[in-house]
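Reopening: Phosphomannomutase still failing for me.
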Amino acid sequence: MAKIDTQILDKATAWLSSSFDSDTQAKVQQLIDSDPKELTESFYKDLAFGTGGMRGVMGPGTNRINKYTLGKNTQGLSNYLKKTYPNEQLKVAIAYDCRHNSKSLAQVVANVFSANGIEVYLFSDLRPTPELSFAVKYLDCHCGIVLTASHNPPEYNGYKVYWTDGGQIVPPQDGEIIEEINALDFAQVQFDANADLIHLIDTDVDEAFIKASVANADFKAPNKDDVTIVFTSLHGTSITMIPEVLKRAGYNNVHIVEEQAKPDGDFPTVVSPNPEEPEALEMALQLAEKTNADIVIGTDPDSDRLGIAVRDLEGNMILLNGNQTMVVMTDFLLQQWKNNNKINGKQFIGSTIVSTPMMTTLGNAYDVECKIGLTGFKWIAKMIKDFPEMEFIGGGEESFGFMTGDFVRDKDAVTAALLACEIATTAKANGSSFYASLIDMYVAHGFYKEKLISLVKKGIDGAAEIKQTMIDLRENSLTTLDGSKVVRIEDYQTSMTTDIEAGTSTPISIPKSNVLIYYTADGTKIAARPSGTEPKIKFYFSVNLPLANKEDFANVEKQLDAKIARIVQEMKLD
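Support: Ran it again with your exact input. Result attached.
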């Protein structure tokens, strides 16, 4: 049997004390006795907050999601809330998704908050993440928690923290909260609930959220009965909201993938419950062929990510990527604002550093600022908070997230689903389609094509490999890509932009992050970053060419696909 590192053994042995229940102690003892590899994975570090909160595999240990790691988080957060709002009756909202243990872990979190004298509003059953963001503001809470691991595999769960504005925590606040958590011992966590402070919430908040979603995304598209919609919740929470929101907006021709309608943390019909993966929408696409649907909509388990498939110019169903969906939605919103004479220089749209540059191009076309932030919707929420004098129209990121208006401060697949249907319906009434609208945008603004490559690197060895890859990219910078010179490098870890030809460097104003972006003379953009929520390193590719007319679409798309393929091969990522 492999020898166990002394520090790891000491951390594990601490979990055999009376601060932990007998079941946890037994599981830890079993790892010590017979599974040193799993023991090491479970204790070699403390689970940390990433771009989407804290996510991890469930089980005993400091590097796992369990009642103790989440209890300690909640105790630290309770201490921070008391210091931040010393003379107020504190209130928090808690929601959870369909994952294994989500309901029981949500109860643990509620118990700890209440034990600290904090009033808790706990959803009585699973709900979408965007509804939690909405509930924080609607109920005038000081913070909110959602128990979810988004689209991660079934063995994962997670913990996301929202603040008074309904947005996720950002620096320096997240660091201050983490300091409070790290200052605690597990023995200091107060698990004994004050039941009088825990209130169950459901239909009142549901109704308010539904009304707000319809108000923000129903643009009174004509002939709604002419559009056929297929919807799948992929065994997640959106089944509780999207069908009703579509119905309230006047959509009656909605076909639900019944085999995936029941919430189930095993996600039995898919390899991954991620609408970014084409396989996840396979059953929905099959139903679309049976019903001759115009649009397919699928969401991830906590209903913040949205996947869309529409019919291409030949009538075949095609899955759009997040960048394509985002620019069509943004253009539609901008056009609505323009038609209503609401653009006056005080509006903005939002996106992220790894998303398509076409968002900036769109903003320029409508004389609307496009603000760019780090990966993760918490940064778009921060933009809204930081610029209260400006109106937020909408925005998104390449990872299938979009937000319409500011009534929710996180990516919102519920409202975005309705917006997508409004776009498809409006286009069809005008003799066009969702996909044809995208091509029209390429003709007007340039054809931008993106691709994402994610390399999975699990465990301690995987984390080390990801770290080394980023070091190598920094120490051995690319000088050309597909024959085009690299003219600019943005390193968000050093917060510097380097102009290669001028030999000058200028500071980057947004917060530090382990992201490296290359730009070439021909407009190519390549970004590399470790995922903040999964054991992956991600490479983002964006290339573009002019598109003279619709007839040239297929030919130019082939050129762009070939260019990306050459770059991928050149970087040895194929």
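The first strand starts at residue 54 and ends at 57. If you still see a failure, please send the error message rather than a screenshot.
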